Amino acid sequence: MEPEEHEAAEGTFISHLVELRNRLMHAIIAVFIVFVPLAVFAEKIFQLVAMPLLRALPVGNSMIAIDPVSPFLTPIKLALAAAVVITIPYLLYQLWAFVTPGLYKHERKLVLPLLVSSTLLFYAGMAFAYFVVFPLAFSFFISMAPEGVEVMTDIRAFLSFVLSMFFAFGIAFEVPIAIILLSRAGVIDPDDLASERAYVLIGTFVVAMLLTPPDVISQTLLAIPMLLLFEVGIFVSRRMKRASGENSDEYSKPTEESIDADRGV
Q1: pTM of whole model > 0.70?
Q2: Is the model's pLDDT at 11 over the cut of 80?
Q3: Which residues of 15-39 are buried (b: 16+ CB within 10 A; e: fewer)?
């Protein structure tokens, strides 16, 4: 590589690092701005998240804190996690703004709808966990307690459990987005994937078993939406494949000139 080319490549790499740093700083500042007011209401936020468990507990039972600092730190940690969740659209926008310059024009048109849909699906997964899974799972866990055992959950263990469940269901609801991206990248073919439904069914329950507690209710409640969303991903991928003409014999490999024109060079 010529010295001039080496310097140009080094300058481009440094400019990318500076851009990445700026995007990360914007993301951190956004999370902090949202976190500050949430921290004021951290206790009420924790009570709201704990409501499904509190309703399932027997009368007279409550949650406990076995660590002296847990009553203070646990709600604050939840407020921070809530701030990250609330700012997800802005965080994804920063990611989108960082990668956009390297994308083709037709790819840029696809990124924004995918970011919006992936955000909504992640929120939908969290809502499904809170309104459907938590009430059923907590009632099941408490009903299975041996006679003479009072269920009094530690608040730190509870927070760890609900955050992991929120994350698991939020990620699981991204199945259609993953299928669409892999299909567009040519890694998988939606028709071939649809023909392997039997293996997908087994794999879905295995994933649900790994992401949820070892009970049938949580695993089933995670596996069923994943299977339905798998079908949604297959349907959308097939439609996009037909629309883009990927199954046409007239498709030709783009030239360097067309690539440059597509990128706006």
Answers
A1: yes
A2: no
A3: eeeeeeeebeeebeebbeebbeebb
